[in-house]
From TrEMBL:
Keyword vocabulary terms for this entry: Hydrolase, Lipid degradation, Lipid metabolism, Signal
Gene3D superfamilies in alphabetical order: Cytosolic phospholipase A2 catalytic domain
Organism of derivation: Terricaulis silvestris
Span of the signal peptide: 1-18
A Pfam family matched in the record: Patatin
Protein name: Patatin-like phospholipase
Domain of life of the native organism: Bacteria
Length: 439
């Protein structure tokens, strides 16, 4: 029987194919802009991964910002210029970008209230998928998202809410890959034509559970690698993650021995579960005002990078036991958890450390423009950039004890969803960085 099952699995895996989800670049190169934020106080949100746990917490944060007036009397949610997101955070970010403010009321029923689960490894199809690189195919996940949440939307349709940066991981190059035109330029491809569901599926394609989402490079449509890659690779002081992304872009364009026709994308949390690495790459590659758009950077007086970390930290119980008492599962899983947690903190620290230089670069860029291009009456050097991080540890003690070990499943019980949303609203109400944007 075992031999029959194995043969069946191998037959299915041999026949399986996955089609690239992107198209070549046409005549017009344009990014997905999103709506224009209001006022001169701008917020950039980073929404972590973490399944329905993260999506519930993030929705509570966004609803709290919507219910909080800014200094101009408009909801703080309307001051959001950009959202960078990973996995569970991307499900919400894309929906909000598609529907705008009304989406903050409808996302719960559209996603959180549904009870859906991936196929388990016990089924023959699930086992066959594992041999192909994941138990559940990317088309299966993307089609479910497309039919049930995004209604066939393309990235070009995401104009009702803030600009979004949906993050995945290029598992060949060990580099971030975001669904923005900057990254699609590396593939000579058009981000606007990609289904929103495919972008979100790539962002949440947890290794083994889901097979990678496939992209294709259309290098023949472009002339050589982007100029910034040569500059970054020649700069031995450039950040290593940015240098590695430059190497990836050169691979995409076929300018290296490892010329790369296909790009395999998995969960953005594999590289950075906060979605900050892609912003660092865009900032260092393009220069100011990136990752902000020129439109947003010209109107800003204060910019707050608000990182919302709903990541699950697995409880560890072996600290009171001797080495022989540590189980095999703990020996395998704990080092993987450590690697994820350390890389996340490193990403956070790198972004925080770079903010003073970014603020100076924004001032210099604005002041270098002719007055007729500055767009408003603000002094060109009147801009400040700050950052804060919201985590579960900002909850009230009783809330934290009840919720800190909430699973990162694709669905959660109704009472848990409600508790996460309520706790998030309380965290935002007490946050000093948000309070500074209130009247």
């Amino acid at each position: 029987m075992r031999a029959i099952v194995f043969a069946f699995v191998m037959l299915l895996s041999a026949c399986a194919t996955a089609a690239p989800v992107n198209a070549p670049l046409g005549g017009l190169r344009a990014d997905v802009q999103g709506r224009a934020p209001v006022g001169d106080d701008l917020i950039v949100l980073a929404l972590s991964g973490g399944g329905a746990r993260a999506a519930s917490f993030h929705l509570g944060v966004l609803q709290a910002l919507r219910d909080t007036p800014g200094r101009d009397g408009r909801p703080l949610s309307e001051h959001i210029a950009m959202i960078t997101s990973v996995s569970g955070g991307s499900v919400l970010a894309a929906y909000y970008a598609q529907h705008g403010e009304v989406g903050l009321d409808t996302f719960d029923n559209a996603y959180l209230a549904r009870d859906w689960h991936v196929r388990g490894p016990a089924s023959p199809l699930g086992l066959a998928g594992a041999f192909r690189g994941g138990m559940n195919g990317p088309a299966q996940l993307a089609n479910w998202l497309d039919e049930n949440i995004y209604d066939g939307a393309r990235m070009s349709d995401l104009g009702a809410g803030p600009r979004v940066v949906l993050n995945a991981t290029d598992i060949y190059n060990s580099s971030p890959f975001a669904f923005t035109q900057f990254f699609f330029d590396g593939l000579c491809s058009d981000v606007r034509q990609v289904r929103v569901a495919d972008a979100v599926a790539a962002s949440m394609a947890v290794p083994v559970v889901f097979r990678p989402v496939l992209m294709e490079s259309y290098a023949s449509r472009c002339d050589g690698p982007p100029a910034w890659t040569t500059r970054i690779l020649a700069d031995r002081n450039a950040a290593e993650n940015v240098r590695q992304t430059a190497r990836a872009f050169q691979n995409y364009r076929g300018n290296t021995r490892a010329g790369q026709r296909y790009v395999h994308l998995e969960d953005g949390g594999v590289a950075d579960n906060l979605g900050l690495l892609s912003l660092q790459v865009m900032r260092d590659a393009e220069g100011p005002p990136a990752p902000l758009t020129a439109r947003d950077a010209l109107q800003a007086r204060r910019v707050l990078f608000l990182v919302v970390n709903a990541e699950y930290i697995r409880p560890r119980t072996f600290q009171q036991r001797g080495g022989d008492a540590i189980g095999m599962a703990e020996m395998i899983v704990s080092p993987l958890d450590v690697a994820t947690e350390v890389s996340k903190r490193a990403s956070l620290d790198a972004w925080r450390a770079g903010l003073p230089a970014y603020e100076r670069a924004l001032r210099a860029w604005r002041c270098s423009l002719p007055e007729d291009r500055r767009g408003n009456a603000l002094p060109c050097d009147d801009i400040s950039v700050s950052m804060d991080v919201i985590t579960f540890r900002d909850m009230e003690p009783a809330e934290y004890e009840a919720l800190y070990d909430t699973r990162t499943d694709v669905s959660l019980e109704r009472e848990t969803v409600d508790a996460l949303m309520a706790a998030a609203r309380g965290v935002v109400a007490r946050n000093a960085a948000v309070a500074a944007f209130r009247p």
